[in-house]
Design brief:
The complex is a heterodimer. By secondary structure, chain A is mainly alpha-helical. Chain A is 78% helix and 1% strand. Chain B has a domain of 173 residues: Rossmann fold (3-Layer(aba) Sandwich), CATH 3.40.50. Chain B has a 6-stranded mixed beta sheet, with helices on both faces. Chain B is globular. The chains are: A mainly alpha, B alpha/beta. The complex binds adenosine-5'-triphosphate and magnesium ion.
């Protein structure tokens, strides 16, 4: 039985190391943020000026950039991921089209994000530029709109997978009850399946959101990297993640570097909370549904 | 025999290639309780699921022969309409957990996109719950979820839900097999009352239950209809040896 105990000890050790690592990341971010927190205080969150030369570090443009791109992407992707989930979870659990769709979804999440950024630059940016010219606004091509489009594709797998699983868990006897009352397939989905899967759908949205908030590479490549508060949907902007990626290597000066770290800390906390809530809801609903 | 509401003519039911209901012809008399008896796996559920076109929801399932509801072939009718005219109650109570008791009773309307006036809806809810003998138990909790109800109450709620759409026939598939004896006898009593307004087909593998509540009894064995007649006659002088063996508990 000694082997058994050693094995267990190793497992526990590995788990502890991982948790400690996460804690260490958090603490070092917190530590690195102190100079910025001390120098800027709350102003960091509501000041809209970001100017390393004059030592002004306001995070507002990037907060806005992050929230707008993420929530818009979520709104655009949701109908698609819901449709895919309903199709795979209820309409067609097996079959050629379903397999194709499942593989597609898996691949969407497997493609490295730099590829999305690249694709965005060569295909989407010229397209958006054309739209902007038709609309008579400055034809940057890059900007919030373009970043949103890319993000909305990238986040689909996160909600689609979870929502599909939750939909598959809706008990057959409830669906049978509905059919036996004369409901059509559409009515069963609308009035029985979706209400039952509601919290799972919400959790799926949260996980997609967490993904969108933190996505860096693809967004950095197509958002235009402008540090001003964005004035329109088409304006070049920056998200928190893209700003960090862009400026970290050239950040000289204590507060400059520290304010980037503080931004990282904020992103870390927000995505962690969103993920924890999402996972919590999923656990609770799947446990309930399996009972 | 009385007026037949529902009739099958040489009904065969398949799952893929396997035939599990074999040429069953039966006439179900109006406002009576007809019991379908038989050992496990003999095709009772499959048979009654052909009567409201639930069988075809299983992929690869098919039927041959005819099912006539008041002389109209239900396989020539809209399947959703058939299912409203021929209601169903399942083995495991399955009220909708996302709906209140009130909404559960009206689920048949909501699911079909039928809007009711408030007064109309209230009347249907009260009426159906009264018919299911549970109005007094739940009238103060109508807007709470049905999940706190006991198993027997949940099953009666399901009965109320199927009665609410005013079916002509209600199919009950072993409605008491998940319930305790007290809840069971309550539902058995209920069937006695219900048959005044609706025709009942009751699947049961409980011989005692068939003898207590049914007016007619059918005995299915390996998918075939072995015997069908007034319950008293079937139980006292079964025509078939198989029926007799089943009744005295030799198998099943
Ligand atoms: N979905 C299905 N696919 C394939 N075969 C099935 C399916 N459902 C039932 N069967 C088979 O059809 C036969 C009849 O099943 P059915 O459920 O109608 O029997 P039953 O008399 O209701 O049994 P029980 O008393 O156990 O409920 C059985 O042999 C069963 O294995
Ligand atoms: Mg059965």
């Amino acid at each position: 039985m000694n082997k058994e105990r050693t094995f267990r000890a190793i497992l526990i050790l590995v788990g502890m190391i991982l948790s400690l690592l996460l804690l260490a990341i958090f603490l070092s971010l917190l530590w690195g943020s102190f100079p910025s927190i001390k120098a800027l205080g709350w102003k960091f969150f509501y000041s809209e000026e970001w100017n390393p030369i004059t030592n002004k570090f306001g995070a507002l443009p990037f907060l806005i950039g992050t929230l707008v791109t993420s929530f818009l992407a979520l709104a655009i992707s949701f109908p698609f991921s819901l449709a895919v989930s309903i199709y795979l979870g209820e309409y067609m659990r097996a079959g050629k089209i379903s397999t194709l769709l499942k593989v597609t979804i898996d691949l969407i999440s497997a493609v490295p994000s730099v590829i999305y950024g690249f694709w965005g630059l060569i295909i989407l940016v010229p397209l958006v530029r054309n739209i902007e010219m038709k609309l008579n606004i400055p034809p940057y091509g890059v900007g919030i709109f373009t970043a949103t489009l890319i993000l909305s594709v990238m986040v689909i797998p996160y909600s689609a997978t979870i929502v599909r699983e939750v939909i598959e868990l809706v008990p057959d006897d409830l669906k049978e009850a509905a059919y036996s009352l004369g409901a059509t397939k559409y009515e069963v989905i609308k009035d029985v399946v979706l209400p039952y899967a509601k919290s799972g759908i919400f959790a799926g949205l949260l996980l997609s959101l967490g993904r969108a908030l933190g996505e860096t590479m693809a967004v950095t490549m197509v958002i235009g990297n402008n540090n001003k508060l964005p004035k329109s949907l088409f304006a070049p902007a920056n998200t928190m993640a893209s700003l960090i990626a862009n400026e970290f290597t050239e950040a000289v000066g204590n507060v400059y570097l520290s304010s980037l770290i503080e931004m990282g800390l904020l992103l870390f906390i927000v995505t962690a909370i969103i993920n924890i809530i999402g996972k919590y809801i999923i656990n609770r609903t799947t446990v309930q549904m399996r009972e | 025999m009385e007026n037949a509401v529902l009739r099958t003519e040489r009904l065969n039911a398949y799952y893929g290639e396997s035939r599990v209901v074999k040429s069953v012809s039966i006439s179900v008399p109006e406002n009576k309780v007809t019991a379908i008896m038989g050992p496990s796996g003999c095709g009772k559920s499959t048979f009654i699921r052909c009567l409201n076109r639930m069988h075809e929801l299983v992929s690869g399932a098919k039927i041959e022969g005819k099912v006539l509801l008041r002389d109209k072939d239900i396989y020539q009718m809209e399947s959703t309409l058939v299912r409203r005219k021929v209601g169903m109650v399942f083995q495991r109570p399955n009220p909708f957990p996302t709906m209140s008791i009130y909404e559960n009773v009206l689920a048949g309307y909501k699911l079909n996109g039928i809007r009711l006036k408030r007064s109309e809806a209230d009347a249907i809810v009260e009426n159906s719950l009264r018919k299911a003998a549970m109005w007094d138990e739940v009238k103060d909790y109508l807007h709470r979820r049905g999940t706190f109800l006991s198993g027997g109450q949940q099953q009666r709620l399901c009965i109320a839900r199927s009665l609410a759409v005013k079916p002509e026939v209600v199919l009950l598939d072993e409605p008491t097999s998940a319930l305790d004896p007290k809840a069971t006898s309550k539902i058995e009593d209920l069937m006695e009352e219900l048959k005044e307004s609706v025709t009942i087909i009751l699947v049961t593998h409980n011989v005692g239950q068939a003898s207590r509540v049914s007016d007619y009894t059918a005995f299915l064995y390996l998918g075939e209809l072995i015997e069908f007649g007034p319950t008293e006659r079937v139980f006292t002088v079964p025509k078939s040896k198989k029926t007799e063996e089943y009744l005295i508990g030799k198998f099943g």
